Amino acid sequence: MSAWDAGDLKGNHVAVACSWTWPMAGVKNDLREADVRFSTRDQDFTNKPTSKCSNKYDIRSVGTHEAGHVFGLGHVGSGHENLTMYTNSFTCNTKARTLGKGDVLALRSIY
Fold it and tell me: Euclidean distance between the first and final Cα of the chain, in Å?
């Protein structure tokens, strides 16, 4: 059973996704389960970042990023800060709620 929850995570993670697949001959692996945990012990989240926001992560942006991992996407690095799958999350920012062109192209290459 897949679960999305909140709690403690080791390190400085904002959230983590774990997925389990079964190999299938002739096709990409078949996703069987995926879990996501938001680090609510060490991080603060909000659903509505405002101009007064301070050091809070937009929960929907982080959720979209973690869903990307569930669907098989990895991180992208420097020069791609505008993409949802950029390696770092930004506080008080909602831009990762929506996939960028590179995110969409990566999903199309998988599916």
Answer: 23
